[in-house]
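User: Please run a holo structure prediction.
Assistant: Happy to. Please share the sequence and the ligand.
User: Here you go; the ligand is F0G.
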Amino acid sequence: MTEPNHARFPGTISLRCIQCQKTYPAHQVRYLCDCGGLLDVWHDLEALHPQINRGLFDGRLSGPPGPRVAPTANSGVWRYRELILPVTIDNIVSRPEGNTPLYEHPRLSRWVGLEQFYLKHEGENPTGSFKDRGMTVGVTQARLMGARAVACASTGNTSASLAAYAALAGIPALIFIPAGKIAAGKLAQALAYGAHTLQIQGDFDDAMALVRQVCDEMGIYLLNSLNPFRLEGQKSIVLEILQGFRWQPPDWIVLPAGNLGNTAAFGKALYEAHQLGLVDKIPRIAAVQASGASPFYQSYQNGFSEKVTVKAETIATAIRIGRPVSYERAVRTMGWTNGVVTAVSDQEIMDAKAMVDGVGIGCEPASAASVAGVRRLVREGVIQPGETVVGILTGNLLKDPTATVDYHTGTWPGASYANAPVQVAPTVDAVRGIIEDRVG
Ligand code: F0G
């Protein structure tokens, strides 16, 4: 790394251990405390308090995009820059990201059993997943630190996002992915954006261990969500929801959980927003895992007395993770938000995905875990039918065409809502028969 420009880091942020509270300067490259604990980017909330209010962020809601507009103007991340990474605008690497839609559809609400059910579609970010919100911050930080290269292990979306933002910034990107276990759309993105793509003989957890070692030994900047700057960007999902609800928070925010970066970021965002007086109440977080990849759910079941790890397997390859890196930060989120954790089967995930797809919204399998999780929690009486719930759709439908086509063409056993293509002779009579049969 070249010598970073210290003057670019104002005194309001530092790195702080979530276990022993030891602090380090924000310009130091480190991902863990000396005690082994995970780090936060810690904002001096007292110093920020006089500057931060709802009007500051509401006043920045952007107009139409135009040429040479500062990235901060149209980004749903950098709108909240004081709470994320207070750097000067010309250093920011942005597509821009965020400003994602909040959908509501009566058929979906009925299906999950709620009166007010919204979906925040993070798959409508520039590279098709929520990772862009963290990556704009991570790559901006990498540039400030003078990184010679950036790297991550990934189940696919982080690597697609890293590849894009590193290409924008002109920094070489190395990505470590489990061979044969990432969705086609995600692999295509990494290759297309020019990342050096290493297919590891092993799963995500093996790739994660390897990239940590490589970054340590070779001075490459690690941009997994172990890196606390990534999580600062992901906080903006929650800030945008709060702002979208005119700072009157919903009762629940429900999200899929894999490596637990997002679960960690959501709790921190809510804690800070509450401390700063942006909101009067904290919504409850529900984290949803795939039952074949549910170490966090199993730890939750034992009251977090033991950190469980598993060998992960699920159709939702994005969350096929057995040793989640942000575990302790996510446990903290559960405490801050009176949160719950649940797990859903691959069958529930794929049926929920078919429902989300079938109303014209669409998402990748891992995202549908949110919706399946909401349905399950309503059935179990944890979420009440009259409560307001926001589910997070984390990735775009186009990310994983194989899972979708398999579901609809009979390769996936037991699909409840399959929409199989019809083989038909090339005659009007043959087509007429099908139309009469299907459309009436
Ligand atoms: N949904 C999607 C579509 C994801 O890609 C991921 C994580 C998650 C949910 C879970 O989020 O890890 O913050 O708990 N994908 C990472 C990756 C691991 O490499 O793209 P998390």
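The chain is about 40% helix and 15% strand.
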